[in-house]
């Protein structure tokens, strides 16, 4: 079974429990309020042959870039949320992308999956889970 190609531009259509997730990351109150009103878009380039991915999260406040190869650990700049770094690995679990982040917060990571033109993002940290949903720009 071939893996899905995540390439595309996706606009956020909903989010749930995001402020609680940011609080679990020790993001200060004022920044949490700002981040929660943003409506980010995701610009994803995915080379299915090499496993190379670029995920750019774009907001009016600050952009966040990830550039990695699936299955290879890299140092991630946690950027707009808290400015810290961690060791990150993103790999397949079936047709979902699973991210594990080590060295910053216990149980931190995320899962991406596609359902048609809908991109789901589940974020985890310190036992708190948040969800964002994006729709592909046609």
UniProtKB/TrEMBL annotation:
Indicate the transmembrane segments per the record: none
Q: Which domain of life is it from?
A: Eukaryota
Any one GO MF annotation of this record: fatty acid binding
A Gene Ontology biological process in which this protein takes part is:
fatty acid transport
Q: Name one GO cellular component term.
A: nucleus
Q: What range(s) does the Cytosolic fatty-acid binding proteins domain occupy?
A: 8-25
Alphabetically ordered keywords of this record: Transport
| Classification via Pfam families | Lipocalin
Q: Which PANTHER family match?
A: FATTY ACID BINDING PROTEIN
Q: Which family does it belong to?
A: Belongs to the calycin superfamily. Fatty-acid binding protein (FABP) family.
Q: What is this protein called?
A: Cellular retinol-binding protein type 1
| Record organism | Danio rerio (Zebrafish)
